[in-house]
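Table S2 (continued). Query chain:
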Amino acid sequence: MDLDKILFPLEWVVAWLMVSFHSLFTAIGLPSESGFTWALSIVGLTIVIRIALIPLFVKQIHASRGMQLVQPEMQKIQKKYKGKSDPESRQAMTQETMALYKRTGTNPFSSCLPILLQSPVFFALFRVLQSLPRISEGKQPPIGAMTVELAHSAEQSTIFGAKLSSYFLAAPNSATKIVTVVLIILMSASMFTSQRQLMMKNMPANAMDNPFAKQQKVLLYLMPLFFAFSGINFPIGVLIYWTTTNVWSMGQQFYTIRRLPAPGSPAEKALEARRLKKGKEHKKFTLPGLSHDDATEDPQAPTETLPKSGQRQQPKRKNRARPVGQGDGSPGVKPPGSKPPGSKPPGSKPPGVKPPGMKPPATAEGDS
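Corresponding output:
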């Protein structure tokens, strides 16, 4: 089958890592036949895989932060074409969205890479544990370093009375069911805690009302329930692997949220407060082709144009219509301070009245 050809190299790597860690733990004094030694080998395998995925995890964090920044622009595009279902509008909306991704260098699929790359490893470990009984009985060829003797040792080893290759549904004893239930609870609880701290601390307030955030809230409760019900079909060794990777993710996310929070999130405000308290400058995360102010702005909030001085524009008084003849010099209405026609300024004398002390002008008879 094509699946066998795809998973065989990964099965070989998984088996080699398990055997290598088993040899290391045996060399430091742990019992070779103990189930705890093989369980720690699976834990070591998980840690190695997660360390190898750290570069992709860093890219995932940057992609997630970038997607948070472009959400306001995405909402503007969605609002622009809201209610338009014709092919032309759909095509224009897709083109504008892709242009936004290209301009800002974001990719919505980058945040899924670590999960997608862990899935083949998960199935490879599942197949290796499932093959242990047949390899130990000689019914299947060895997988890489997992020889017949080592497969028999791993198959016969127990942890609290449960074999690593045992299932809940086909449990040979009650110890297997108890160990399986405990691991399923730990796996689901660690997954729920990781997703909850991601939503409560690392998502901005304006991103909590969009449809994507609502779906995340639903998945916050559905995913742990899904793994809780599907976990009864997993071997105990796979449950150990999945619980370990969830605990690793929880610690990794805690460190990332504290150091590289999403823009506008409560974690970023807490980081800014810590840096200001220490006297350090806080540089906000930005994208090329998208300013930080535009990214954190709420597209549904009313905008207000400010002058270049940075002060708010004072409202201008509107010209109201006045009654005809009022204050415009119309006849019959006297403006304030105006004088009646024919009036003279103060101090002027009427004609024919001589000021006191002034001599009358000489006549012609008196001169002759």
